[in-house]
Design brief:
This protein has helices spanning 65-69, 79-92, 117-129, 150-157, 181-190, 197-228, 241-249, 261-269, 278-283, 293-298, 313-324, 330-335, 339-344; strands spanning 7-15, 20-29, 32-38, 46-47, 52-55, 57-62, 95-103, 136-144, 163-169, 233-236, 254-256, 273-277, 304-306, 361-367, 370-378, 381-382. By secondary structure, the chain is an alpha/beta fold. Helix 7 links the parallel strand 10 and strand 11. Bound molecules: fe (ii) ion. Residues 169, 171, 177, 236-237, 257 line the site of fe (ii) ion.
Amino acid sequence: MNMKEPLILSNARLVLADEIVERGWIIAENGAITAFGSGRAPAGAEDMAGDLLIPGLVELHTDHIEAHYMPRPKVHWDPVSAVLSYDGQLAVSGITTVLDSLRVWREEGADDVGGEATLLADAIAKARDADMLRIDHFLHLRCEVPMPDVVDETRALIGRDDVRLLSLMDHTPGQRQFRDETKLRDYYRGKAGGLTDAELDVMFAKRHQQAALHGAKNYRALVELARQHARPLASHDDTTAEHVTHSIDDGVAIAEFPTTVEAARALHAGGVRVLMGAPNLVRGGSHSGNVATAELARAGVLDVLSSDYVPASLLMAALCLPQAAPGITLPAAMRAVTKTPAEAVGLNDRGEIAVGKRADLVRVRMAETVPVVRTVWRTSRRVA
Ligand SMILES: [Fe+2]
């Protein structure tokens, strides 16, 4: 549609940041919301037939692009084509802003998309510059702290305009996400072309050595780099009181996937937004045997949901959160996938239905128990 023509929608259940407007209407002009209300529809409105109208979802942590770029082990797809199909999948999942999570380190022998962050970041930029994308893309640099070259690799990427978040990860066996080392073994064994136990022994020994050699030094260097470039930081898999103290003292904006209820409580109380996996909520637990998203929601310490590896999980999880955690209203559940993640990374122009905010909107209808995304607008332009 023409950007100059206003977008007018009516007869929708509008999900605002703290209430639902029944029989709601909305007007957006030049990409921003200019008015909304309830009752008699303005002239020329498109009838939403009572469907939910929600703000476009904001996703901070998904590596799903890798599934499109490497659809089979060792098979690399054209990166721009991969970006487009990934972008389309996010759009039909109701996501209008994404932080594409790219691993900035490389690891010998691991059959992963590692060390190709620059190639993927370039493909995203190319698609964006040519107006090929349906939704808004930013970058989230995933930094595996103990890796020998991680600081240099991060330094090479952090100056890009679209970098919005740095996460500091440490997957050393026996720690954090993989306190139970057998879970890490299962993870690597289960991957296509999986490693044998003997190969894993070698790899794990090397990981321990790298952590001892580089962990503390790289951690400080990465925190400093983020500070110099004014980029928000995320911690990852916080488990112990020491992890929590570091995260609070170093001013991290988001704690991704804390592994225990104690860590999550302390982070939340310390002003760090707690992010948990939407698949964990939909599936009813963590695939690595850590704390359940629903448990943190019931404890009142869940701030942000992330689709992680299943784009469709974000909307599903937000809509089932009020049942999973009585006391959480639908507007509060939607905030965990819109306003709160947007604000955490400084995107204050979006994430809620309010006058002056971007007209990033999603029309949703429930079919059986599955939400169906029927229409998506980004800055009032229809994109799905
Ligand atoms: Fe992790």
